[in-house]
Every structure is written in C-alpha cells, then in structure tokens.
Design goal:
With 702 residues, this protein is an alpha+beta fold. The protein folds into 3 domains: 160 residues, Glutamine synthetase, N-terminal domain (Ubiquitin-like (UB roll)), CATH 3.10.20; 379 residues, Creatine Kinase, Chain A, domain 2, CATH 3.30.590; 125 residues, Up-down Bundle (Four Helix Bundle (Hemerythrin (Met), subunit A)), CATH 1.20.120.1560. The strands form 4 sheets. Strands 9, 10, 11, 12, 13, 14, 15, 18 and 19 form a 9-stranded mixed β-sheet that branches. Strands 1, 2, 5, 6, 7 and 8 form a 6-stranded mixed β-sheet that branches. Strands 3-4 form a two-stranded antiparallel ribbon. Helix 12 runs antiparallel to helix 15. Bound molecules: adenosine-5'-diphosphate and magnesium ion. The site of adenosine-5'-diphosphate (ADP) has 16 residues, from strand 9, strand 11 and strand 14.
Length: 702
C-alpha cells in the first residue's frame, strides 16, 4: 500500500509538468514556453527544439522508447500512433532523437477518422499540433511499454477542426475574453485571463470478466440488449455509499495510483445507486486538462479493471430497469489570480459581480437549452434521460431558495437581502452545530447551482466532456459579451447592472425550477413555460445546424458553419451505426443462442410429455409450460423477422437524417419488442439451459 509520503512522490511522477520543466529547461526556454502556455504567444522552433530534447531525455530516463501525438477525433475516443525515438547512424547503430518539429507537429493519415464530409479521401492528410497547455505525460502499459504522450489538436489539411480539443480551446479563449471585458467594466483590472474550470464526476459499472465474455451484447454494444430483471434491484437503496467490497476496493486503489502517476487528482470514490455501480471524482482543473484527464480516466478504468478480472462498463445504460451512468460536469469560471466568479460570498444580494455572472448563465442556458441538450446527445443517453433516475430531457436551472428569492426581488426592482450563515442543530449536545449551505441539494435538476459552480448532470458517461463544455463556454461568452457591451456604454453603472439583472430574471426566469424534475407535473409545467423537451438524439442534434447555432459558433470563432455541419453529420451517422450494431448483435444472439436454447427446452418438455403418455401421471404442467414457451418462441421468431426486415430497410436509406430516423423509429423499436419475448423466455427456461449470464449473475456475483 502506498504511504502518504509515497503518494506525494508518486503524484505527477509521469508528467512533464511545470516542476519538471523548471528543473530541466534552461531559464530562457522555460520563460519562452510559459509565455506560450499562458498568453498564447507563438512558439519558436528554437524553444521547441530545446523542450523536445529535455522531454525526450526525461522520458527515456523513465523507460520510454516511443512518443505519440495523442488526439481526440470525433469518435469521442482517443487516438495515438507510436513512433520510436530511434534514428539510424552511419555505423549501423541508432541514436535516440526527438526534434522540436516532431514535438510540434504530426501528420497522421486522416482518412479513416470521421470528418462528416469535411475531407475528401484525396486530401487524406491531417495534422496534429501540440497543445502545450496540457502537459505531456508518460503512458505505461501492463507489458512495460512506456510512451511519451503529447496532447495534440487534430485538423484537416485545410485547417478545419476534426477533433474535440480544437473547438474546446477556441471556446476557452472566447469565454475568457468576454468575461474579462465584464470584469474590466466593473473596474477590476488585475486578472489577465479567465479560465473555465471543470470537475467531472465519472460513474461506471464493474462486472466480472467471466460473465462479460459470455455476453456478445456487452462485448459489441457495451450494454445488455436482453436480460430479465433480477429479483433484487436497487430498491433497498443499500448500494449508494455502501461499504466497498474488497475486490472493488483493490481495483479502486490501483486506479488511484495509475491516475495519480499521470497527475490526475483522483479524489473521491464511492458506491453509486445501482448494484455494481461506482463513481470517481477528481479535483477540478482547467477544462482543457479536465477533458484530457477524463479520457485517461475512462481508459485507465477499463485497463485496471481487466487486471482485477473485472470489466468496466462506461455505457449510459448497461442494464435496463436500474440506474444508468452519467457524468456530472461541474463548471465554473475563475480568474488567473484565483477568484471564482460564481462565488456568491456571504451576501450574494449585493455582490454585483456574482449576480451579473449568474444572470449571464441564466440568459445563456435559457437561450441555448437546445444546444446544451444536443451536446449531451448520444444513443446511450436516450435510454437514460427522463428515465426516472436522471434528469429529463428538459433543461432547467436549480438555483436554490435563497438565490431564487434574491433574483425574484431584483426582478421586481425591489431590494433583496441575504439570509446570512445559518446553523443546523443536530440535537445532541455532543455533536457540533453545522454551518448550513446557502443552497440545498437537488439531485433531480439537469443544471444545478451547487454553491459556487454549476453542475451539468446530463452529460453521458461514455462520451468526451469536450462538447458540453464547448457549449457552456460559448453560450456564456455570448451573454457576457452583451453584458460587457452594455456596461461599457453606460454612464450609470449601478443602474445598468440592476437593469441587466432585472431583464435577465424577467425574460429568462422561466428556466429556474427548484422542484422535483422527475415528476410528470414538471413535464407539463415545462411545456407551459415553453421549454423544449427533446427526447431523442436524432432530434436533439438538429440544434447544431440551426441559424442561431451557426451564428453563435462563427461569431466566437469556435466552429464554422461547415465544421458544425460536419459534426452533425458525424453524430447522426454514429447514431445509425450504433443502432445497426445493436440490431446485428440482437439478431445473432436470438438466432444462435436464445432460440436454440428455447428449442432445446421445448424438445425436452415434448420428450417428457411423450414418455408420460400412457403413464398414470398426466403431463399437465409440462404441457402448460411447453405451450407458453412455444408461444413465446413463435412470437420471438416473428419479431426477429420484423427486426431483420426493418434493418434491411434502414440500411438502404441513403440520406443521413432520414436514415437515423428510420433506425430510431423502426429498428430500435423492433429491438425493444423482441427483447420482451426473450426476457419472458428467460424466466421460463431452466438456468442451466440459458445461454448467457443473468442480471443477477452480473450485478451481484463477485
Ligand atoms: P458532489 O457532492 O456533487 O459529488 P463534490 O463537492 O464532490 O460534489 O464536487 C464535485 C466536483 O466539483 C469535484 O470534481 C470538484 O472538484 C468540482 N468543483 C468544485 N469546485 C469547482 C469549481 N469552482 N469549478 C469546477 N468544478 C468544481
Ligand atoms: Mg455531483
């Protein structure tokens, strides 16, 4: 077990971080690089050469033989191609080399990455460019390979973004610029930069590898397409924060160590609500780094799980009828000198700066609820949003009583007051009085103000967090831009501030909802308020190609209309492809596993009935079961044929949107219907004849 001392030594030991750079780089080089990192000043090849050499020496000392430009294509996963440091010498040997040019730029063939029509095959060239704001690090694998991993952005030959990082970096600049304008207008001249900070809480499942390997649906889709409910689900609420089983705890310890080595501040770990479900939360960081780290977290979870004979499932809904997984994306804005712009302080009612930033968020979330929804759309999340465990597909903000009260008064042009610190008496003399938070917790809101940050809870567990944060940054930038412009123009600042807040409350106050978001009443109420309720990925993605989105993204130079459109195409295609895989998997399992198993059972029953003919005992029960199983078998077979024909039709549709619609309305629907029969069969066929592990096996047997 790592001791406290070890942890401090271990943390960041595989990162070429600021401390290492200071130690290993000549002073001038270090200063030059910092200028690029902090202020975006161009990096000279001279500086790059020195940095590359120092990085290489450091990496080799730690056992590295290769380097890779690590990037995040639109698949939502990461990509890497490894190059050895070797360079041949005249005498037949090699030396280890790594130049500034190799550090700054790579040229992977881009033709096999999704581009949504941005890149014709004849322009297959793609470029990766070093993102020096996210530190390079070493990746180690179980075989002992150590690779110097350089975070990079990925774009096409013509400079169009083909990845998740590029728009994220652009959106960070946009929000920084506009937030700074607001601060300047308020008379605060000190900060040089505003940083979007994010702490993503990652939910996941662990199941025994033996079970996983016997389920084609988990292997190829990441979720179970079939499975009768286990007798016990999550109804006893005994898993959440429950004592962690030793086997899981061993996994979590290894995971912590892996993450700490890569400088990822894994902080919190606990059992989640569903059986076999867990969560890990790091300490927040700059969003770009948080996004990179979250990718590494997901990768490490999967790798470390295998070492423990477990498999980590990151899908949004691996098991029907119990909770799925999400990511709680905690987001705020901070100045480079450490001020959290969403910190209400003790008296939020007279904290103009806080109220302005809060108003900006209200305005932007209401105006662009559709974009936020689109940024969380994926086929997995369609199972989760609105499924009584996760926020519905309606975006609203939880503000808490005190802030809502303040905003309501300000909206009416009245004076507002803060409640000040209140204390909670537990009622036993030996227990201390606890200071109470200004906002209560509301676990049902998709977008909750939680003290000094917003927690966006719709983010899917398996996806990159880049997309949702691009949207958060850019919509905040727009509202802050408008606020800054008004403040810069006015001669009476305090009057203008009141007017801005009042207007925000009156125009956009409908976005605030503090009640239970899981109820039918809220769905009705939201409809009355005119808030969009977008159920499926296919519909949600349309928000990316509206006139409104195009203008917004172009204005802040985050994505061109063309780039946005390419993403729309890619995500729609991904949707269709994912459902296609699910359908093919279901067909295979039903044809080759479930139907044969049910047939075996019917023939066994038929044999018994035959044997009992003429015997004194009448085969009443056997006949009853046989008839039930045969009926389900016939029905399943019919639904299988219907699924096959729906699939054929969907495959033949050419246009991307129509194709996705066809998959959703026919293939996906048929799949659900087929599942009903198979799940019913599972409850009748003997355990030893059933070809795959059950929900009870996977969720409870460790
Ligand atoms: P919960 O009870 O919802 O799990 P935590 O207090 O554990 O909440 O925090 C959740 C996440 O929010 C952590 O990753 C934490 O670092 C992050 N967080 C805290 N403050 C900020 C902030 N100012 N900006 C972004 N994330 C933050
Ligand atoms: Mg949380």
């Amino acid at each position: 077990m790592a001791t406290t001392q070890d942890v401090a030594q271990l943390f960041g030991s595989n990162v070429f971080n600021d401390r290492t750079m200071k130690e290993r780089l000549p002073k001038d080089t270090y200063k030059g690089l910092r200028k690029t990192i902090e202020r975006g000043e161009p990096l000279t090849l001279e500086v790059a050469n020195v940095v590359a050499n120092a990085m290489k020496d450091w990496a080799i000392e730690k056992g590295a033989t290769h380097y890779t430009h690590w990037f995040q294509p639109l698949t939502g996963k990461t990509a890497e191609k490894h190059d050895a440091f070797i360079s041949p010498t005249a005498d037949g040997g090699v030396i280890m080399e790594f130049s500034g040019k190799q550090l700054i730029q790579g040229e992977p063939d881009a033709s096999s990455f999704p581009s949504g029509g941005l890149r014709a095959t004849f322009e297959a060239r793609g470029y990766t460019g070093w993102d020096c704001t996210s530190p390079a690090f070493l990746k180690e694998d179980a075989a002992g390979n150590v690779t110097l991993t350089i975070p990079t952005a990925f774009c096409s030959y013509t400079g169009q973004a083909l990845d998740k990082k590029t728009p994220l970096l652009r959106s960070m600049e946009a929000v920084s610029k506009q937030a700074l304008r607001v601060l300047r207008a308020l008379g605060n001249k000190t900060p040089k930069k505003v940083i979007a900070t994010v702490g993503p809480e990652q939910e996941y499942f662990l199941i025994d590898k033996e079970y996983y390997l016997r389920r084609l649906d988990l292997i190829s889709c990441g979720r179970t397409l079939f499975g009768a409910p286990s007798p016990k689900g999550q109804e006893l609420e005994d898993q959440y924060f429950g004592s962690i089983k030793d086997r899981i705890s061993a996994f979590m310890r290894d995971l912590d160590i892996e993450l700490w080595k890569m400088g990822i501040s894994a902080k919190t770990k606990h059992n989640e609500v569903a059986p076999a479900q867990y969560e890990m939360a790091p300490i927040f960081s700059t969003v770009n780094i948080a996004a990179d780290h979250n990718q590494l977290v997901m990768e490490a979870m999967q790798k470390v799980a295998l070492r423990h004979g477990l498999v980590c499932l990151l899908h949004e809904k691996p098991f029907a009828r119990i909770n799925g997984s999400g990511k709680h994306n905690n987001w705020s804005l901070a100045t480079d000198d450490g001020m959290n712009l969403l910190e209400p302080g003790k008296t939020p009612h007279d904290n103009e700066q806080f109220l302005l930033f809060l108003s900006a968020l209200m305005i932007s979330v209401d105006k662009h609820a559709d974009l936020l929804r689109a940024s969380t759309a994926n086929p997995g999340n369609d199972h989760r949003l609105g499924a009584n465990e996760a926020p519905p597909a309606i975006i609203s903000i939880f503000m808490g009583e005190e802030l809502t009260d303040i905003l309501t008064h300000l909206g009416k042009g009245e004076k507002a007051t803060s409640r000040g610190q209140s204390y909670l008496r537990i009622g036993a003399d030996t227990l201390p009085d606890l200071p109470k938070d200004n906002t209560d917790r509301n676990r049902t809101s998709p977008f909750a103000f939680t003290g000094n940050k917003f927690e966006f809870r719709m983010v899917p567990s398996s996806a990159s967090i880049a997309g949702p944060n691009v949207v958060l940054n850019i919509i905040a930038a727009e509202a802050l831009d408008e606020i800054a412009t008004r403040l810069e123009k006015t001669s009476n600042k305090s009057k203008e501030i009141s007017a801005i807040i009042k207007e925000a409350v009156n125009k956009h106050g409908r976005i605030i909802f503090n009640g239970n978001n899981y109820t039918e009443d809220w769905v009705k109420e939201a409809k009355k308020r005119g808030l969009p309720n977008i159920q499926s990925t296919v519909e949600a993605l349309k928000a990316l190609v509206t006139e409104k989105a195009g203008k917004l993204f172009e204005k802040y130079k985050v994505l061109t209309k063309e780039e946005l459109h390419s993403r729309y195409e890619v995500y729609l295609e991904q949707y269709a492809k994912q459902i296609n895989i699910e359908a093919l998997t279901a067909i295979e399992m039903v044809k080759r596993q479930y139907i044969p198993a049910a047939i075996c059972y019917t023939s066994r029953l038929a044999k018994t009935i035959q044997q009992l003919k003429g015997a004194a005992a009448p085969a009443v029960v056997q006949k009853e079961i046989l008839s039930k199983v045969s009926d389900l078998l016939a029905s399943a077979n019919k639904k299988l044929a219907a699924l096959e024909s729906a699939l054929k039709k969907a495959q033949s549709v050419g246009e991307t949107y129509a194709k996705a619609v066809c998959y959703r309305d026919t293939v996906f629907k048929q799949l659900g219907e087929l599942r009903e029969d198979i799940d019913a069969l599972e409850t009748l066929v003997p355990t030893e004849m059933w070809p795959v592990p059950s929900y009870a096996d996977m969720l409870f047997k460790f």
